[in-house]
């Protein structure tokens, strides 16, 4: 349905996106992941025809979006990372304004406004000005604007940033429902790996403008099939203990939390005895040392050397 072919964007002497190749099938939810500065927003801007590429192409139903964007713009909905609403207008007035931009008029526009307000759970707040809304309500209305014209494709750029868990869950369930009921195609970026786990059929991972991995969730996790993730838990860790684990020649990656350390090591290495030996050396009382099934977060850290939120 959508294909990115060697898509490239260069700003002066630096590549924001370099030779990006992706495809999105009709009815899929596809995740696009990467740490800050990976090139995700630039890629989305080119895909949505808001930014001209330096090279390559974006194709929709085998027709170039770059050369002729108007057909694609009629069938795509965009949920930007930043709230794009008029805060001095009510929810209904915002939807009416954007509906007219989509060339909706009269009874059809009124019907769509009612339908979208019901879908995003804001019917009883339709007459309230947006500046009185919570962050979660604004996010939901932002999504509502993108749904007004019944898009075939919706692009969601971190749609749950800075909102409460209840609103976040509502948005995730809404996206899932639209995909299942309407076969709506979704490209979804997020800084929350659990959202991607819940929503996405396939995943692309970018770093420094390059595509570094792609596949289903299980295929991505199998990248670590030759390695083990080990969870080390204790009430406290000393700096010396952490440094000793970090500098151990068998440790490929380490993530340090307040009461848990995760390390990635080759599967052939017996790291359990080494962890216990180092703990005894620095008088650390461990509560557990366990093998952990690899997660998307583990793979992401392995590939980029950074957590998703970095």
From TrEMBL:
Q: Which Gene3D superfamilies match?
A: P-loop containing nucleotide triphosphate hydrolases (3.40.50.300)
Question: Which SUPFAM superfamilies does this UniProt record tie to the protein?
Answer: P-loop containing nucleoside triphosphate hydrolases (SSF52540)
Q: Which SMART domains match?
A: AAA (SM00382)
Q: Name one Pfam family in it.
A: ABC_tran
Q: Where is the ABC transporter domain?
A: 2-233
Question: What keywords are assigned to this protein?
Answer: ATP-binding, Nucleotide-binding
InterPro entries given for it? Answer: AAA+_ATPase (IPR003593), ABC_transporter-like_ATP-bd (IPR003439), ABC_transporter-like_CS (IPR017871), P-loop_NTPase (IPR027417)
- Report the GO molecular function annotations: ATP binding; ATP hydrolysis activity
Name this protein carries in UniProt? ABC transporter ATP-binding protein
């Amino acid at each position: 349905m959508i294909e990115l072919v060697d898509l490239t964007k260069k700003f002066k002497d630096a590549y924001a996106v370099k030779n990006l190749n992706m495809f999105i099938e009709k009815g899929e939810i596809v995740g696009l992941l990467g740490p800050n500065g990976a090139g995700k927003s630039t890629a989305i801007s080119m895909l949505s025809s808001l930014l001209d590429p330096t090279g390559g192409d974006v194709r929709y139903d085998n027709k170039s979006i770059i050369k002729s964007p108007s057909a694609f713009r009629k069938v795509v909905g965009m949920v930007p990372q930043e709230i794009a609403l008029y805060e001095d207008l009510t929810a209904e007035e915002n939807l009416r304004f954007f509906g007219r931009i989509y060339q909706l008029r009269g009874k059809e526009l009124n019907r769509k406004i009612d339908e979208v307000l019901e879908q995003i759970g804001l019917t009883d707040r339709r007459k309230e000005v947006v500046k009185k809304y919570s962050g979660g309500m604004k996010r939901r209305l932002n999504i509502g604007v993108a749904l007004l014209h019944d898009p075939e494709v919706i692009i969601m750029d971190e749609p749950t940033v800075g909102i409460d868990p209840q609103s976040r869950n509502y948005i995730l369930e809404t996206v899932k429902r639209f995909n299942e009921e309407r076969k709506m195609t979704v490209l979804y970026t997020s800084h929350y790996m659990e959202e991607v786990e819940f929503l996405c059929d396939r995943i692309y991972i970018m770093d420094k403008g390059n595509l570094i991995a792609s596949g289903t969730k299980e295929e991505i996790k199998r990248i670590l099939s030759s390695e083990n993730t080990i969870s080390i838990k204790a009430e406290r860790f000393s700096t010396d203990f952490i440094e000793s684990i970090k500098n151990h020649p068998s440790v490929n990656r380490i993530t340090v939390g307040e009461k848990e350390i995760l390390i990635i090591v080759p599967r052939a290495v017996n790291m359990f005895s080494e962890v216990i030996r180092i703990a005894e050396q620095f008088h650390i009382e461990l509560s557990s040392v366990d093998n952990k099934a690899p997660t998307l977060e583990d793979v992401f850290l392995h590939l980029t050397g950074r957590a998703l939120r970095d």
